[in-house]
Amino acid sequence: MMERMRLRIDLAYDGTDFHGWATQPGLRTVQGEVERALSMALHIGPDGEWPRLVVAGRTDTGVHALHQVCHLDVDDAVLARAVGHMDVDPCEALLRRLRHIVPSDIAIHAVREAPEGFDARFSALERVYVYRISDARCDTDPRLHDMVLPLDYDFDVDAMNEAAAYAVGLHDFGSFATPNPGGTTIREVKSVAWRRAGSAVFADPDGDPTHAVPYAESGLLTFSIVADAFAHNMVRSLVNACIQVGRGRKTVEWFAQKIAHPVREGGTGPAPACGLTLERVVYPPDGQLGPRAAAIRARRTLE
Fold first, then answer.
1. 70: helix, coil or strand?
2. Which of 1, 110, 278, 281 sits between 20 and 30 A of 226, alpha carbons compared?
3. Which one-letter DSSP state was computed for residue 240?
4. What are the extents of the domains in the chain?
């Protein structure tokens, strides 16, 4: 009998030309491209068992990922097909083949055997997202066009932070998200912050200021949020609500009421996808992966 192995795959992607992560008939998606690449690398024909990925967080159309995580269950014998004439272990062989097959807007960082109990989705402790805005105080850098939202406004960042602070904690984010079928919009936000990206520079070893080069993101207005998980459209809707507060179109008290009384309405729709990036997925130590997965599968409540 063939043994099955669970693989952890770490990757990144520019979401601009994808209809989100999840496979959809007739549409280009990240999952679809990576599964297609896996089928080619593992020589899985139309009659074989198609590789199915489980992801840490399904990103929406146009959303990017600097560090996404997924897992794949595969038979040892099937994984061994990736080796071919290479003198490397099967995971390294699969990594090399995937890097040659996936399109240029996907990067495969690592392929390795997952620890016992690992589940890319349910074992995760936290997800970290950042939303980037080029506002009236920051010149637009054309190199960042696909990952930054340009808005020609001068925002009240203090008011935006005052409002965003109400999102910290365990809440029903029904004003800012839609649940999956049978799911809930209850989530626990660990931290949020609006801030300017730092103006740190690279300089030569002698510190000659004429050779200083600012970071590409210097001056951007950024929204960073950490939570155990996120409901559909939750981050972008929180961003849009904060934008309304920062422009003076809504008050901090309005935002607080939307947290206290979860009712969806026009002012809490999502901001454009282009500014949002999944930056990191955090997992517990190996020995806690299985218990974490079992605990998080339970339906969330506010109790």
1. strand
2. 110
3. H
4. 4-113, 126-282
4-113 with 126-282: one CATH topology? Answer: yes
**Per-residue model confidence as pLDDT tens digits over 218-276:** 899 999 999 999 999 999 999 999 999 999 999 999 999 999 999 887 777 899 999 99
Query: Is residue 60 among the annotated active site residues?
Result: yes
List the one residue out of 219, 270, 278 whose CA is nearest residue 14. Answer: 278
Level-2 CATH architecture, domain 126-282:
2-Layer Sandwich (3.30)
Catalytic-labelled residue, pool 10, 14, 47, 60: 60
**Strand locations in 176-246, DSSP E?**
186-196, 201-202, 213-214, 221-227
Q: Which tops the pLDDT comparison, 264 or 150?
A: 150
190 CB burial (10 A radius; 0-12, 13-18, 19+):
middle
The pLDDT assigned to 266 comes to 72
CATH 3.30.70.580 fits 4-113, yes or no: yes
Q: Please check whether residue 128 is in contact with residue 280, taking contact to mean a CB–CB distance below 8 angstroms.
A: yes
Q: Report the C-alpha gap between 121 and 170 in whole angstroms.
A: 19
Please give the C-alpha separations between residue 129 and each of 74, 84, 280, in angstroms, as whole numbers. Answer: 30, 39, 7
Is the pTM here over 0.90, yes or no? yes
Output the pLDDT for position 205: 66
- Residue 78 has which token pair? 């099937």
Distance CA 90, CA 299 (A): 37
Q: How many CB atoms lie within 10 A of CB 102?
A: 21
